[in-house]
Every structure is written in C-alpha cells, then in structure tokens.
C-alpha cells in the first residue's frame, strides 16, 4: 500500500530513472536475509498455551533452528519479548530470566521469578538442577544446524505466567517485539497456527496445546556485521603463483576498529564468554586482509580420472574458538565428490537435482573445534573428485569455487581475472618451427 501511494504521489519534476530507483528501493526491506544456498532458512519460536489455571497460565516455548548450515554457538541465544500488560513469570523450567526486576507489588507472598516488562531469557547450562530441567534444555544456548546434528537443533522451556491485572481475559494476547539476542537476526510478528500436537506414552497417545503462535526470525549477514568475517586464497599445482586474499577484505590496518597483533607481540589470553556476556570483538593477526578466518583452496593433483583438492581453514582470531564450525562451498563438480578425508561432508540439494553445493564440518572430538590463532589454529582436508568429461577443465579457473561461506557468513573471493591459470605454451610452440628453420638455414649456408 505504501509503495502504491508512493507511485501515485510522484512529483512531476522527478526524473524517471530516479523515480524507478526510489520505488524499487522503497519496496525492499532493509532487514532481508534471503540466502540462495538455503532459501527456507529461519529460526522459528513456537509459543504454546498449555494450561489455564485461572489466575495464571502455563506456556511452553520452543526455539527451532530451521537452517541447513548456520548454527548458534556460545554464548548462545537470549530470547526476549515485551509483555502487553503487567504479566510476571512465577516460575520457569529449562531456562531462566537474567533479571528478577521490581516485584514490589507482590509483597507479603513468595516473589515471582521475574517481573520485568521485557524479560531476557537464557538457556540453562549442562548439569543444571534436576528439578529445574525440561525436555531439550540445558545446552547453554547452543543450537546446531539441521545438517550437523538433527538432535540438537532446538531448545524448549516452560513457564508459569501471572495474568495481567487489568484484564484477566487477555491471557491469549501474545507478547510483542521478540528478539533472539543474536547478531544479524530479526524477528517478525507472532501469528496464530494450528495447535501443536505432542506424543506421549511411547507415541500411543496424542495431546495438544490450547493455542499456538509462531514467530519467524531470519538472518542477515549485513545486519550481523558491516564487514565480512573471512576471505579465500587460491593456488594450484600448475601455477607457481599463490593468489592471496584481496587487500582489505575485512578491514584495513590503521583504520578505527581494526585491531591486530603484530609479529612478536604477545596476544591476550582467551576467555570464553558466559551465557549472558557478549562475544568479544575480533583481535586478529596483522595481515593485508585483516580477516578473522582464512580459507585456502589448493588444486593439489591431477590423475587420469580424478583430481585432488586440499582445503585449509585458518583461525586468525586470538580471542575466539569456533565450535561446531562448518564450511559451505559452491562448485559445479561437487556432484562428483568421490571421497573426503578428515572432514564430514554432505551435499546441500536446495534446488532439487542441482547438486553443486556441499557442506563440510569437523569430526566430533577430533577437529570439530577450530582453535584460536596459533600453531594449532587450523584444520584441513583433502577430497577426490571424479572428472566429468562433459564439463571438466583446468582452464579459466574452473577448478576454483564460485562461492564459499564459513559458519554461514560468505567469504570474500579474489576477482576471477587473478585466478591461477594454466601455463601459456602457445608462444614456445609457434616459435619452434622458426628456430628449426634458422638452424637449417645456417647449416645450409656454411
């Protein structure tokens, strides 16, 4: 409606191309987080009204990470919302509010768990008290992607809420302004859906919520960080040139906010953030690209029917370990992957039969943790790909990826005209006949 009114009210003196640009710009949401490698990606919050106790009601809240490769690592999610009235949380299981708030209106009785108008809820840590646990809780706010571990991609907690004093019949109104407390995520408004059904007694019995609402949250890399977080360098056995990450891929030395550790300097000790602490700003090793993470793609060897690639991921951040890391690559020959060494691998068929995207991640208890910058701050793998005679070639940079993302954030690739190329032997081949003719002429003369 707003875009239509904008068209109707266009100024007569405005140039047509300016008008078209402004119209298109006004029609696009700045928080759009569409990812072509995972077009259905989102985190969904499900709010189930389970029980009406008269003066209070019970709610079950679930957080589902419906993303193929993007996950939530420590310090984890911090869910918040705004109550419509003066609701208060009497008790919680599976999570806790970070602040109790002002509960002075409940004098003379047991105080509620939280009286905040906008409570901030965090997951319990592993090993929490048994009487405070709930199904699928106690992961410290960590949510895996659906590809890496389908058993840990969601979290659930339950709470008992006091009805607002102004209108006891208003309990069915959902709270407003949901937020996951994660950089880059934007949540929409709640909308009612069919009541959730639950399995009980070994799936022999079905129960269901009284009412259910969903809230959808999407991720935008631009909103998460104004600058990229990783870059890609390239090399090949048939060319002595190593193409480095583009200069100033993530930041430039000397600019505000670009902190780095020079060679010989002692970096600070790494301290992992707690559940309610913010992630520290990157502190990287000084480089021409200033990226916290670097991915190197090396075309290592060529066989008769196969070719071999080596991938190395280097952590250049001194204040962060990457747990449950993953790498997503887009390459036309990934449909012919024969073997991957020391990494887990799974194709991502986001578009039916188009199999040109794959996801790599570490093996549990072996290399699933990418340590901070240092001698052990890297992981690497090699893979064999079958040569497809219809499309395979070493020319024009075909063996290098079209796109790479690390932990869900797209990496900066070198420009295509800098890719390692095959040696140019044309001049030597054309020069050979002239050399032979010269030698023959000299012999003939003498």
UniProtKB/TrEMBL annotation:
Q: Which GO terms describe its biological process?
A: cellulose microfibril organization; plant-type cell wall cellulose biosynthetic process
The record's listing under Pfam families reads: COB_C, COBRA
Q: How does it sit in the membrane?
A: Lipid-anchor; GPI-anchor
Which PANTHER family does the entry mention? COBRA-LIKE PROTEIN 6, PROTEIN COBRA
Instruction: Please give the InterPro entries that the UniProt record associates with this protein.
Output: COB_C, COBRA_pln
Q: Where in the cell is it found?
A: Cell membrane
Task: Read off the lineage from the record.
Answer: Eukaryota, Viridiplantae, Streptophyta, Embryophyta, Tracheophyta
Q: Where is the COBRA C-terminal domain?
A: 229-420
Which organism is this entry from? Carya illinoinensis (Pecan)
Q: Which family does it belong to?
A: Belongs to the COBRA family.
Superkingdom of origin organism:
Eukaryota
An example GO CC term for this entry is: plasma membrane
Q: Keywords, A to Z?
A: Glycoprotein, GPI-anchor, Lipoprotein, Membrane, Signal
Q: Which residues form the signal peptide?
A: 1-33
Q: What is this protein called?
A: COBRA-like protein
Q: Taking the first listed entry, what is the main subcellular location of this protein, grouped into a coarse class?
A: membrane
